[in-house]
Design a protein that fits this description.
Layout: E1 20-23, H1 29-42, E2 51-55, H2 63-75, E3 82-84, E4 98-99, E5 122-125, E6 129-132, E7 141-144, E8 148-151, E9 160-163, E10 167-173, E11 176-179, E12 189-194, E13 198-201, E14 204-207, E15 220-225, E16 228-233
Parallel strand pairs: 1-2, 2-3, 3-4, 6-8, 7-9, 8-10, 9-11, 10-12, 11-13
Antiparallel strand pairs: 5-6, 12-15, 13-14, 15-16
Keywords: Cell cycle, Cell division, Septation
Subunit structure: Interacts with MinD and FtsZ.
Region (Disordered): 89-119
Length: 235
């Protein structure tokens, strides 16, 4: 008998980078959680779709206190994908894994702090609006709570626009668009090519799975009608 040996392809490992938000709580933890609740009230969709890391280096909580903190964040719909500063051992069943070696990428501005963006050509006008003359690349976050944001190019998958007013995109919308973050229910989202990951206006949001597939790839506007989010083609 002749035995045949099947050759299996080697296992391949690929690296991939994601933009994560790092939460670094400070004592007293009750006050810090209250500030977090205030942020969520101002911008309910701020953590939607974001990867979140919990850095407890400064806090140095006991194991029981750390479990309570993670549970408190989960109750606020902020799932933690990893924990820094908790030692190199296992954190126990049901807890996020320990992480180390992360590379800082700068502060992520909160919704009331003003515009923040990775490098992109931008221009603030006198009418409380921000114009971006370059495409918004994956991993970039543009925050402008003072008014409208206009993007002359496209918004890539993994990118995010947060505006206090309306959002105008003259290319494809493939990332997240959050309009009306300053409590403006009349804000709208306009784009020339509709392929979003997430839409939000004044705290109401819709993910890609909830979007009418017949509108994908078309010019679309999004607005609120009472407590419902409406979408309609512009062509």
């Amino acid at each position: 008998m002749t035995s045949q040996t099947q050759t299996r392809p080697p296992i391949r490992f690929r690296g991939r980078s994601f933009l994560a938000v790092v939460l670094a709580p400070e004592a007293p933890i009750e006050d810090w959680l209250a500030d977090l609740d205030a942020l969520a009230k101002r911008s309910p969709a701020f953590f939607a779709g974001r990867a979140v890391i919990l850095d407890v280096t400064t806090l140095a909580p006991s194991p029981d206190a750390l479990k309570e903190l993670v549970a408190a964040l989960n109750q606020r719909d902020i799932p933690i994908m990893g924990i820094e500063g908790a030692g190199g051992g296992s954190l126990g069943p049901g807890m996020p894994p320990p992480l180390n070696g992360g590379r800082p990428s700068g502060e992520v501005a909160m919704p009331e702090d003003g515009p923040a963006a990775a490098p992109a050509a931008e221009k603030a006008t006198g009418a409380k609006s921000l114009m971006l003359e370059s495409p918004v690349r994956s991993g970039q976050a543009i925050l402008f709570p003072e008014g409208d944001v206009t993007v002359m190019g496209s918004v890539a998958s993994g990118a995010e626009i947060i505006a206090g007013g309306s959002i105008h995109i003259y290319g494809a919308l493939r990332g997240r668009a959050i309009a009306g973050a300053a409590g403006t229910p009349g804000a709208r989202i306009f784009c020339r090519r509709f392929e979003p990951e997430l839409l939000a206006i004044d705290g109401l949001y819709r993910i890609a799975d909830d979007i009418d597939p017949s509108l994908r790839g078309r010019a679309v506007q999004v607005w609120l009608d009472g407590d419902a989010m409406r979408t309609a083609a512009l062509d």
